[in-house]
Write a structure and sequence with these properties.
heterodimer, A: mainly alpha, 5 helices, B: mainly alpha, 19 helices
């Protein structure tokens, strides 16, 4: 509620000083980010569901789905660990901007970007070691499709974080308006959550 | 501000024009972020594509009049025309038409001066338009499902994904506007039914269309590489993987916004306030949209030998229960709206007569027919799934969607084109659409029900001619609606509320609305803020 104080001008006329209402915070960006993240997650989960269903069909017919030892788990584990580590740095950015600590916000977003690039490197290493041609194997086709879609999501999240970093650098975000940082963090959280599903459904249970 | 007000009229006018940063003319249309301009672009192009899609469907009907011999497509795969008709009606016609009306009307209804992310909404339009054009090119170079040119099939899949992405982007803008940019006092339970219907429908689209896009991506990767899943697609098996998007329950989600449209028209025309029934109607509309979520009926990639347009896996208990439950919200809403007219009559109010009301009757009748016949399809003993009966069901539900969308165009024409469209023309369109859709339904459903299977065979010639007649009437209806709207552009200017009884905020703005919609947003204290202003003693 706006508070009112009465003041008297030099001409003797009294008038009300009304404190400005706090700016509206409709969380438009945060809401839209949540919707886009949900749509991206649904698309990747659909490929995972098709993967599981196709795998079940092949195994039910007595055929092996993947050759033994086709995907060593160490690569996906490292990729997952990289992303889990990035959750801490994103949370750090979130907290830093809440305390108007822009320097720490930049550092935290920078570390997240670095970890994201590290994840892309790990992912390409995994794919390189698959030794299953997309021309020959249903499994490889679906793994590469799901992985590719997730990679696109990671790249989108990195671009979003980069833009957020630039905007923070320009002074657009502060403790009273940190929606952009929170939205970028939310998208990153969903990206990591989606990879957790991929990691378990594809790489662990193979 | 005060300085501007004190200037003389002579100097103020050119100055205001010079200071106006908005581009005008062609650049103003192409580069506009005004939600009304983007919405009109969606409406104009989707109406054109809807007409083309209906013409393609009618060509297929002509081609199949005599089973076994193609009248038109000798040496041409008619499958391309079938699939382009289905995709055209749903993704190039109906959904963008709903989104176009929503982009114009929803910000006005919720008391917002703009849509959330106007540039993203414009990007959504251009992405969708590019996708539709590329899809047309793909069909033109013998691509599409079963196409003879592999690069054309690849282009078809990618263009379809692009089209979906554009629609989803526009959907995000509409949903975000309703959730975050509502006027003070407008709780979610007070959101007008069209906006509410769009929110729940678009939410279901956001959860189901990415699944369709993912399937299309797998189709692209598979087809572009080895064809492990689908082979070389010589038989058009590709489309089998996306047919679930054109069958129940998913098609119900695509037409769910019509319930919101009807829900806004009825109280205005019945001169009756909804009060607590508003929230009941919101619940029914939400229920209808949720029961239209069909991404889980996706066709298996492991289903063995494939044929074109085979049945979707509807024979499971969940789909059967959903098909039965979805009748309830439609019946419930029909009851609520009948009660609105009864209460209006009891209060001595004279209902308004006009073409939107005719569209309401036609849409509701077709939707009821759609959900009732749809409940029969999953029953395995009847053997209707995958037959012509399913095709007839699609035509009925889409007919309801098209008439509902046209109802919106006639009802909100003063906000969309700034003029009122002729009532006589509207009545003609509604009548043609009703009889055309019923004939299309009869021509497909009856042979399907009598065990004639999925294709037109010997002994169905009479039904085939009925289908041709129905398709022709639907084409005429859409063409007449377009002509009617174009003729309406030449009409006289209209007041803010041409119905003289509008209940929601869009009727407080000029016709057509100004750039930033409202000079001052009226206070919102109920689901019918304008009625509160007119009759403060009955304000809820």
């Amino acid at each position: 509620m706006a508070t009112t104080t009465t003041a008297v001008g030099s001409d003797g006329i009294s008038f009300d000083l009304v404190a400005p209402a706090p700016p509206a915070r409709p969380r438009t960006l945060l809401f839209a980010t949540a919707l886009v993240a949900a749509a991206c997650a649904m698309a990747i989960f659909a490929v995972v569901a098709i993967y599981l269903e196709a795998r079940h069909g092949v195994r039910a017919g007595g055929q092996p789905w993947l050759p033994a030892g086709a995907i060593p788990l160490i690569g996906p584990n490292m990729a997952l660990f990289t992303l889990l580590l990035s959750l801490l740095s994103v949370r750090w950015a979130h907290d830093a901007i809440a305390h108007d600590d822009r320097q720490n916000t930049w550092v935290a977003i920078g570390i997240t970007l670095l970890l994201g690039v590290g994840f892309i490197n790990a992912d390409s290493f995994i794919w390189g070691g698959l030794h299953l041609g997309v021309h020959k194997s249903e499994a490889a086709l679906l793994i590469l499709t799901a992985g590719g879609m997730h990679l696109a999501m990671v790249i989108g999240a990195l671009v979003f974080l980069l833009l957020t970093a630039f905007r923070t650098l320009g002074g657009q975000f502060s403790s009273s308006n940190r929606e952009g940082v929170v939205a970028a963090a939310l998208f990153w959280y969903v990206t990591v959550a989606v990879y957790c599903v991929l990691w378990y459904a594809i790489y662990v249970t193979k | 501000m005060a300085l501007t007000q004190s200037r003389s009229d002579v100097t103020a006018a050119p100055s205001a024009q010079a200071d106006d940063p908005r581009p005008s003319g062609f650049a103003g249309v192409l580069g506009s972020g005004d939600h009304k301009v983007v919405g009109r672009l969606f409406i104009a192009t989707s109406l054109l594509f809807l007409l083309i899609a209906e013409v393609l469907g009618e060509l297929v009907n002509w081609d199949q009049v005599s089973p076994g011999s193609h009248k038109l497509f000798k040496g041409i795969d008619p499958n391309a025309f079938v699939t382009s008709h289905l995709i055209g009606v749903v993704f190039a016609g109906l959904i963008p038409l709903f989104l176009g009306v929503a982009l114009v009307v929803v910000p006005l209804q919720v008391g917002s001066r703009a849509i959330a992310f106007p540039r993203a909404a414009a990007l959504g339009f251009w992405a969708w338009l590019t996708g539709v054009i590329l899809l047309g090119i793909a069909y033109g170079i013998h691509g599409g499902p079963g196409g003879s040119r592999p690069s054309g099939v690849d282009l078809w899949a990618l263009a379809f994904i692009m089209l979906i992405a554009g629609l989803l982007l526009a959907s995000v803008c509409v949903i975000t506007t309703v959730f975050t940019l509502r006027a003070p006092g407008m709780r979610l339970t007070r959101v007008p039914l069209f906006s509410w219907g769009l929110v729940v429908s678009a939410s279901i689209w956001l959860l189901s269309l990415p699944v369709l896009a993912a399937v299309l991506l797998i189709i692209y990767v598979d087809h572009h590489n080895a064809g492990i899943f689908l082979g070389n697609d010589a038989s058009g098996a590709t489309f089998n993987q996306v047919i679930w998007a054109f069958r129940q329950p998913q098609i119900y989600a695509f037409v769910a916004p019509v319930l919101g449209i009807l829900g806004d028209i009825v109280p205005t025309f019945a001169r009756a306030r909804d009060e607590y029934r508003h929230q009941v109607a919101q619940t029914f509309i939400g229920m209808f949209a949720v029961l239209g979520f069909g991404a889980f009926t996706i066709t298996s990639f492991n289903s063995g030998p494939r044929a074109v347009l085979v049945q979707t896996p509807l024979h499971n208990p969940v789909v059967i229960v959903m098909s039965l439950l979805i009748i309830l919200p439609v019946l419930g809403l029909a009851g609520l709206w009948a009660d609105s007219f009864r209460r209006g009559h009891a209060a001595g109010a004279k209902p308004i007569k006009g073409s939107p009301l005719a569209f309401v009757g036609v849409t509701l009748a077709l939707l009821l027919l759609g959900v009732l016949t749809g409940a029969l399809i999953p029953i395995q003993r009847l053997k209707l799934n995958g037959t012509l009966f399913s095709d007839g069901h699609f035509e009925v539900v889409m007919g309801a969607g098209v008439t509902g969308a046209l109802a919106a165009l006639y009802y909100w024409s003063s906000k969309i084109i700034g003029r009122r469209v002729l009532d006589v023309g509207g009545l003609g369109v509604a009548t043609l659409a009703l009889f055309g859709t019923l004939a299309l339904a009869a021509g497909n459903m009856l042979p399907g029900a009598f065990g004639k299977g999925a294709a037109k065979v010997e002994g169905t010639e009479t039904y085939n001619w009925i289908t041709v007649l129905g398709g022709g009437l639907v084409v005429l209806a859409v063409a007449l609606a377009i002509v009617n709207l174009l003729a309406g552009l030449r009409g006289d200017s209209v007041p803010a509320d041409p119905w003289e009884g509008g209940l929601t905020l869009e009727w407080a703005t000029d016709s057509p609305p100004a750039y930033d919609n409202f000079v001052e947003v009226p206070p919102v204290g109920s689901e019918a803020p304008l009625l509160d202003l007119r009759s403060p003693e009955v304000a809820g």
